[in-house]
């Protein structure tokens, strides 16, 4: 019974604020004659017509594929390089100036440059997403690897645990909370870059669809695209939280137990 109550309370917290905001939007926009601010009722009515099965296949699924591909590429590169840089002080000192310089360059600025080398196809969009997502993952991985308990490191060395076994059983598990923090930050960055990259020389995708609606003065359709983008971000965040809770169940268990202890 208590478990059911906790689930219902959490569900209430999740839907309460969106419900309030949508209600305010519904009544605030009711009767609006502004072309660029149509009533929410009009936007909702346009959903079935705009986002049918064909448009979902043509725009939503390609965007999702590009996002997940770039995000996965950034995760692999960021964790691998972050582990290497965080494990060796000399490598960290050598790479730090370059990393700080590259991190300061906004990824959208690199879109024209990446287009010169990767063309205007899906490869360009995936690279743009990966370039923007890699930095939070890499830097958080570096900090997580650096923060590995030295006592545990010495214990592993005394027991002859080294190489891949040390990396798998000590370094990555210890750094995983920091790594997931970087992955969480990168997810929102990836969604932003997905939209921006699809506004440059694209023929499909959510960003392309929103711009096309705007240029064709299909304003309700444009607003539906923005809402779809928000729903996509929300659903991806929920999925990420479920994966994080499962992978880091040991970490959250330790935190919960420490809170209960006097």
What is the fold's blueprint, element by element?
Layout: H1 2-29, H2 40-50, H3 53-87, H4 89-103, H5 111-118, H6 122-146, H7 150-158, H8 163-197, H9 206-215, H10 219-247, H11 249-260
Mind explaining what this structure looks like?
- The protein is mainly α and 262 residues long.
- Helix content is 83%, strand content 0%.
- It has one domain (55-256): MetI-like fold.
- The chain contains eleven helices and no strands.
- It is globular, with a radius of gyration of 23 Å.
- It starts with a helix and ends with a helix.
- The model has no long low-confidence stretch (mean pLDDT 86).
Keywords:
262 residues; mainly alpha; 0% strand
Q: Quick one: CATH superfamily?
A: MetI-like
What CATH first level would be assigned?
Answer: Mainly Alpha
Q: What oligomeric arrangement do these chains adopt?
A: single chain
Average per-residue pLDDT, rounded, comes to: 86
């Amino acid at each position: 019974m208590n478990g059911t109550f906790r689930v219902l309370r959490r569900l209430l917290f999740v839907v309460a604020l969106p419900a309030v905001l949508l209600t305010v939007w519904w009544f605030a926009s009711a009767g609006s004659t502004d072309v660029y601010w149509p009533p929410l009722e009009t936007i909702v009515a346009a959903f079935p017509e705009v986002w049918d099965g064909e448009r979902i296949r043509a725009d939503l699924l390609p965007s999702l594929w590009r996002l997940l591909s770039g995000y996965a590429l950034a995760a692999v590169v960021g964790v691998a390089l972050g582990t290497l840089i965080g494990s060796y002080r000399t490598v960290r000192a050598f790479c730090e100036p370059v990393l700080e310089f590259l991190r300061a360059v906004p990824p959208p600025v690199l879109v024209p440059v990446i287009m010169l080398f990767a063309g205007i196809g899906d490869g360009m969009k995936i690279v743009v997403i990966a370039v923007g997502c890699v930095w939070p993952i890499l830097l958080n991985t570096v900090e997580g690897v650096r923060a590995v308990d030295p006592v545990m490191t010495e214990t592993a060395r005394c027991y002859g645990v080294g190489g891949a076994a040390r990396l798998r059983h000590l370094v990555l598990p210890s750094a995983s909370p920091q790594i997931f923090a970087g992955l969480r930050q990168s997810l929102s960055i990836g969604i932003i870059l997905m939209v921006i990259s699809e506004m440059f020389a694209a023929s499909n995708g959510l960003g392309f669809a929103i711009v096309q609606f705007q240029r064709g003065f299909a304003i309700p359709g444009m607003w539906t695209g923005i809402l779809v983008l928000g729903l996509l971000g929300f659903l991806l965040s929920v999925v990420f939280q479920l994966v994080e809770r499962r992978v880091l169940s040991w970490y959250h268990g330790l935190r919960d137990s420490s809170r209960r202890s006097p």
